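tool_call predict_complex ligand=adenosine-5'-triphosphate
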Amino acid sequence: DLWNARGHIRFQDVHFGYSDDRVILPDFTLDIPAGQTVALVGTTGAGKSTLAKLVSRFYDPSSGSVSLDGVDLRRLHPKDLRRAIVMVTQEAYLFSGTVADNIAFGKPDATMDEIRAAARAVGADAFIEALPDGYGTDVNKRGGRVSAGQRQLISFARAFLADPAVLILDEATASLDMPSERQIQEALQTLLADRTAIIIAHRLSTVAIADRVLVMEHGEIIEDDTPEEL
Ligand code: ATP
Ligand code: MG
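tool_result ok
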């Protein structure tokens, strides 16, 4: 039986650098209560993606800890960690296989009904049904048949179906082709409901839907506010 995480994330005195001679996060402490949507903004190189990579355990801190519901991530079973924390990157990578396979990636026992419901929830169903073989369409290597915006929506559907306690999203910088700003915003609101979310935000419309906005600079939080106060 799977452990159900609540989604409380805490960085405690985290020190991290990719190499010993260059510190990216000198002494980082941050508490994100379960269910909160946090938008992370700041200049390039500030450490936003690094922070995201520490939460998804691509890297571990050299000292201090990152914890989920009070448990150090290093003490979690990898299976529990993957179930609880999902990261959607700006590349929105698609695997070879069908659209349905791609949505169900991470939850291979999903039924077609569940896959369709996830696509519908994020507004991806219309374009998928318009593809030559619908959900059975092969996306090819590197998603040849689908646009960048459509890839983003497929990865949203994948995350919705996986239903993690914590979602980390590195938002695409380039303006997406197909789905409109409004479509992405609506998809995001559905996707973020009832879970903790950390979004590296590039759109103002995303910052606006966050509960809390963190401004990062040189590995530190220099502002911590609601979007209204910023
Ligand atoms: P951006 O807005 O451009 O995405 P960011 O805030 O996400 O920037 P990070 O990617 O976290 O910034 O990078 C923080 C610092 O760490 C930068 O100086 C970057 O060059 C460095 N860095 C990032 N990834 C690596 C890596 N794999 N190896 C070495 N240094 C890295
Ligand atoms: Mg980044």
